[in-house]
Amino acid sequence: MSCKRMENKLVAFMDGRATASDRRAVESHLAQCEACRARVEGFEGVWSMLGELPFHEPTEAFDVRLRARLAAEPVRPSFWAGILPSPRLALAVTVLAVFSLWLGSRPMPGNPAGPSSPAVESEFRMIEDLQVLENYDVLTSLDMHQQLPAENAPKVHKN
């Protein structure tokens, strides 16, 4: 096991809170790694010095002041409070979605009968034959008649 992964397990190992499998892993690593053994010895030295310090029981005034400060701290909203919407917002979004679906299912104002009405179908049948429309455009446009070649024009032959 690497020294980086051992850093997280050393404190639990020294406190006696490590699981049996973690304890075996740390012990086998410490048998092989001089740097981690030195680190454990350093921790033990610090803890022995802390153990020599006299224990002071906090006074009642300290306890009262600490509780007052904790009560005065503003409550931070949880992570989920910002993600989960309020019931009013959820209701508003649901109503908006239902209204949008209802509005989208209604026929368009310019076509009150809807997209598959008989009027639309008859208009489509009228323009179904595009060849008829092309011929109609040619016949109604007089400019096209001027561009036609003259059939009766005299032919000039060069000899």
Describe the structure.
By secondary structure, the chain is mainly α. Helix content is 67%, strand content 0%. The chain has helices at residues 3-15, 20-32, 34-52, 60-72, 79-83, 87-105, 118-126, 130-140, 143-146. Helix 1 crosses helix 2 (20-32), helix 1 runs parallel beside helix 3 and helix 2 crosses helix 3 (34-52). The longest helix is centred in the first third of the chain and has 19 residues, at 34-52. The protein is elongated and about 125 Å long. The termini are far apart. The mean pLDDT is 77.
Please give the alpha-carbon distance between the first and last residues: 108 Å
Q: Mean pLDDT, rounded to whole units?
A: 77
Structural class: mainly alpha
Give the beta-strand count: 0
Tally of alpha and pi helices: 9
Portion of residues in helices?
55-70%
Low-confidence stretches: none
Oligomer: single chain
- The ordered string of helix (H) and strand (E) elements is HHHHHHHHH
Rg, nearest Å: 46 Å
User: Can you summarize the main beta sheet?
Assistant: none
Q: What amount of the residues lies in strands?
A: under 5%
Principal-axes shape call: elongated
Notable traits:
single chain, 159 residues, elongated
What's the helix and strand layout?
Layout: H1 3-15, H2 20-32, H3 34-52, H4 60-72, H5 79-83, H6 87-105, H7 118-126, H8 130-140, H9 143-146
Helix pairs in contact: 1-2, 1-3, 2-3
